[in-house]
Every structure is written in structure tokens, then in C-alpha cells.
């Protein structure tokens, strides 16, 4: 079958890589894709926005696409699944009604309240109530802080503000209502208690009736080592999360994930796609921070390499209501992803800086089962310089492209998060060593990456092995 992948980041390159291993798949397409995906498929440069749904659908029809997989949240919230379904096209992800789980934090907060799903205590306000909100903040004692201010709608990962004191809360309100930096996403806001703890991500496959949880991952949101600095889209990730016991994992499922899926059904929402729970663990108790309606980025890059099953078969089971017949199989290896970002990220991002050294990386081969790699690619063989060969070479890593551009036979930066280096090994120590030795071969102006990704997993591993 022909598969279309919507999106352009490291997550989508990883999806394309995993999809390429499916025995069901003949050809991969992507809109808009990226130079990494171009090494295994055909990319069509079209902005993924609601106004272009018709063009995307036309592309799918013209190219005999059998199955479309959506990466980012915005098209899901905007109804791309509803749109494709109207034309009888198979597409993976929740419809717009179900995607409210990410598209409206107020919707999710109300669902949690109604069905007793553990989450931070909160109050909800409307934009029109600005005086009431200021009054509410002003009356709070400073001891009530930190508090968290969240805008209701999608805000490209920037709509959660941790306010350490009253003034920061008032500044946050100013951003929402005076400067209007979130637009209509801030028509409703939530003010909630700050929960101290550590976060884990749990992605679940859903077919409307059944749900299958995947392995846990943890991501790193802050730009600098030791979780210092501004929030980013994610600077790295690892899986499994060794310091979450089986008992705690079961608790996450039984207190949060399964009750949410059942609650959705009771609300006549038959969720199909990935239900991604962002969970915070505080004193060994899990609380829901947020839901996302899609694969996580960069969690996907450490989860899919560990999955031994055919991803396309699984995703098709989700949309066909056949998940009950499926069982997931995971390898026992430790997987780490380090994100390389461009100069100025996350405040800004630099474009057009020459990326050197990709051809020197010991990278893994695509595991094409009886397939001719060349027939997939938009690129000539001689310019597939950095991808995936020498599976039995030591120190090998996977390279996923996120914000790159390919011009005149060279790669350049083209966004905030530029590349992901992923490695899988028997220990976190080895996986980290593989990445951090290879990453030194890559160079571009202002390149930045965290040096402590998965360090806590490695230290935990060390502490239990003695
Ligand atoms: N890793 C955070 C996200 O995908 O939203």
C-alpha cells in the first residue's frame, strides 16, 4: 500500500522509518516531509493547514494513497480526519470531536472533574472575566504560589506558564488578554495548582473500543542541562523509564488512562488514534498534566525503535476497530534520543547554517524487508550520504531530520530543532556513549544540545546493578 505521512519533524521521519519496515508498504509519501524523509519517500511541499485540506486530499487521491498518518496536533484539532473520512479515505488519528482532548484543556479538565481522574485542582475563567481573574489572583496569598496558568487552546507548546508569584501571574494574564499573544486560544484559561514531581509520557493505541498502552518514555522540555532555561518542543528523550516500577505503571493506567478512555466512551466519544498522557508523579502518585491527541515528539523517536511489530498493521487495526486482536512486542533495549537545536532556540531559530559531518556518522541501515530502498527515494543514491548503513558497525545511531534543508548537495539548518540522534543498546550507558561520541562529528554555527539526556536513567541503572 501507499502511505502518506503528514508533518515535517523528527517524529515524522521516525514514523516514516518505521512505516518503511512494514511488509504492507510499497511507497511512502509525505506532506511536507523533510530531507530525511526524502531519503525513503516522496515529499510534497505544501503547508499543513485547514485551508489546504482539499489540496492534501486531492494529493492523496492522485497518488493512490491507501493510508494517511497524521503527525502534528493542529490538523487533527482542525478536522483533517473528519475531512478525509468524508471522502472515504483511511486516515490515522482522532476526529475533531475526540481531538478536543488536546485542543481544549478546559474540555479535558472538565472530563477529569466529572470522572474523578486525578489532576491538579483548578479554576476556569473566560476572557470576558478579566477583572474577576485579576481579583482572584490579587486575593491569593503569596504562599499559594507557584501556580500554573494554562490557555485553553493550542499554543504551539507555549500555552503553559508557571507563575512563581503574584506578579508573574498578572504578567501571564497580560500576555493572554492585553498583548493577546495566544489569540483565541486564551478565550478560556485555567489556573491550577503546581504539582511537584517528575513527568512521564504514555502513548496509547486506541480503536474506539479498546486501548493498548505502549512503553513509557520521558522527555526533556528545558533547553539547558539540569532542566534550566526556557521550555522547548523537547530536547531529548529515553525509554524505558527504569525508575517507574511496574506497580506505578499499573497505577497510571488504572487511575488515569483507562478511566479517561471509558469516560470518553460515556460521553459518546469513540477515540481512535494515539491518546498520549502527560503524567506527573508526585510522592509515588500519578496525576494527569495534559493529554495530547498524537504521537509525542521526541518520545516517538525512542518508542518506535523498540517496537518489534509492524506499525502499519497496528495503526490500521486502530482505525478498523480491530485492536483487540493485537498484542504489542517490545525489545528489552534502552533507547535514547538527543535533539540538536539551532542557534537562538527556543527564543528564535536560525536557518541556513551549513551542517557538516553528517556523512561521518556511523548510522544504522533501514531494515527493508525484501525491498529495494532506491525505488522509494526522491534522492539519488550518491546524495543519501548520511542515512542508515552498517548495522553491525559499532556505535551506530539513527539520524532523524527535524529542521533541515537540502540544497546544492548540502544540508542546512531550517528551524529550531534540527536533528535527532537516536541509539539503542543493552544499557543506557552504551546508548548515551554511542550518541555523545557520534554527535561530536556534527558541526554547524550555534549548534546546541543537552549533555545530560538519559543521565538519570544511566545513574539509576548503575545504582540497581550493584
Ligand atoms: N514531547 C512533548 C510533546 O510531544 O508534546
Radius of gyration: 22 Å
User: What is the domain total for the residues?
Assistant: 4
Number of helices: 14
DSSP strand content: 25-35%
Major pleated sheet: 8 strands, antiparallel
Q: Unreliable stretches, pLDDT < 50, 5 or more residues?
A: 365-374, 381-393
Annotated CATH topology of the largest domain:
Glycinamide Ribonucleotide Synthetase, Chain A, domain 4
Measured distance between first and last alpha carbons:
50 Å
- Spatial ordering of strands, largest sheet: 16-15-10-11-14-17-22-19
Structural class: alpha+beta
Give the beta-strand count.
Answer: 22
Q: What small-molecule ligands were found?
A: glycine
The CATH H-level superfamily of the largest domain is: Phosphoribosylglycinamide synthetase, C-terminal domain
Please, could you describe this protein's structure?
The chain is α+β, with helices and mostly antiparallel strands and 466 residues long. It has 4 domains: 1-95, Rossmann fold; 121-193, ATP-grasp fold, A domain (Dna Ligase, domain 1); 198-325, ATP-grasp fold, B domain (D-amino Acid Aminotransferase, Chain A, domain 1); 333-466, Alpha-Beta Complex (Glycinamide Ribonucleotide Synthetase, Chain A, domain 4), CATH 3.90.600.10. Helices cover 27% and strands 27% of the residues. The chain contains 14 helices and 22 strands. The strands form 5 sheets. The protein has an 8-stranded antiparallel beta sheet with strand order 16-15-10-11-14-17-22-19, sandwiched between helices. A hairpin with a 3-residue loop joins strand 10 (198-207) and strand 11. Helix 7 (130-139) packs antiparallel against helix 8. The structure holds glycine. Glycine is lined by residues 219, 234, 292, 296-297, 299.
Amino acid at each position: 500500500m501507499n502511505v502518506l505521512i503528514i508533518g515535517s519533524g523528527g517524529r515524522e521521519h521516525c514514523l516514516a522509518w518505521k512505516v518503511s519496515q512494514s511488509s504492507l508498504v510499497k511507497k511512502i509519501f509525505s506532506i511536507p516531509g523533510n530531507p530525511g524523509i526524502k531519503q525513503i519517500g516522496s515529499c510534497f511541499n505544501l503547508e499543513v493547514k485547514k485551508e489546504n485540506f482539499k489540496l492534501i486530499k486531492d494529493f492523496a487521491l492522485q497518488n493512490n494513497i491507501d493510508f494517511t498518518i497524521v503527525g502534528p496536533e493542529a490538523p487533527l484539532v482542525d478536522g483533517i480526519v473528519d475531512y478525509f473520512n468524508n471522502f472515504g479515505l483511511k486516515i490515522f488519528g482522532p476526529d475533531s470531536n475526540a481531538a478536543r482532548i488536546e485542543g481544549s484543556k478546559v474540555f479535558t479538565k472538565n472530563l477529569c472533574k466529572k470522572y474523578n481522574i486525578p489532576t491538579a485542582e483548578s479554576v476556569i475563567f473566560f476572557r470576558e472575566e478579566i477583572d474577576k481573574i485579576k481579583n482572584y489572583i490579587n486575593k491569593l496569598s503569596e504562599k499559594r504560589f507557584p501556580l500554573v496558568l494554562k490557555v485553553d487552546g493550542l499554543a504551539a507548546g507555549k500555552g503553559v506558564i508557571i507563575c512563581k508569584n503574584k506578579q508573574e501571574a498578572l504578567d501571564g494574564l497580560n500576555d493572554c488578554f492585553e498583548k493577546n499573544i495566544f489569540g483565541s486560544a486564551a478565550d478560556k484559561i485555567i489556573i491550577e495548582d503546581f504539582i511537584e514531581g517528575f513527568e512521564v509520557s504514555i502513548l496509547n493505541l486506541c480503536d474506539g473500543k479498546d486501548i493498548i498502552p505502549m512503553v513509557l518514555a520521558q522527555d526533556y522540555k528545558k533547553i539547558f542541562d539540569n532542566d534550566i532555561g526556557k521550555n522547548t518542543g523537547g530536547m531529548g528523550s529515553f525509554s524505558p523509564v527504569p525508575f517507574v516500577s511496574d506497580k506505578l505503571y499499573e497505577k497510571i493506567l488504572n487511575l488515569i488512562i483507562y478511566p479517561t478512555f471509558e469516560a470518553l466512551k460515556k460521553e459518546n466519544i469513540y477515540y481512535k488514534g494515539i491518546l498520549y498522557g502527560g503524567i506527573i508523579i508526585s510522592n509515588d502518585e500519578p496525576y494527569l498534566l495534559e493529554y495530547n491527541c498524537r504521537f509525542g515528539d521526541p518520545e516517538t523517536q525512542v518508542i518506535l525503535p523498540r517496537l518489534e511489530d509492524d506499525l502499519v498493521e497496528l495503526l490500521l487495526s486502530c482505525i478498523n476497530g480491530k485492536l483487540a486482536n493485537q498484542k504489542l512486542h517490545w525489545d528489552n533495549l534502552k533507547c535514547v534520543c538527543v535533539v540538536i537545536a539551532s542557534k537562538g532556540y527556543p527564543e528564535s531559530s536560525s536557518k541556513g547554517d551549513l551542517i557538516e559531518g553528517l556523512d561521518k556518522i556511523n548510522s544504522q541501515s533501514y531494515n527493508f524487508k525484501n525491498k529495494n530502498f532506491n525505488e522509494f527515494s526522491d534522492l539519488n543514491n550518491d546524495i543519501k550520504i548520511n542515512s542508515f548503513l552498517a548495522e553491525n558497525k559499532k556505535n551506530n545511531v539513527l539520524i532523524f531530520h527535524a529542521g533541515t534543508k537540502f540544497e546544492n548537495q548540502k544540508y542546512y539548518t531550517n528551524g529550531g530543532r534540527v536533528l535527532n540522534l537516536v541509539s539503542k543498546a543493552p544499557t543506557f550507558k552504551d546508548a548515551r556513549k554511542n550518541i555523545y561520541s557520534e554527535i561530536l562529528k556534527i558541526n554547524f554555527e550555534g549548534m546546541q544540545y543537552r549533555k545530560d539526556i538519559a543521565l538519570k536513567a544511566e545513574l539509576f541503572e548503575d545504582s540497581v546493578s550493584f
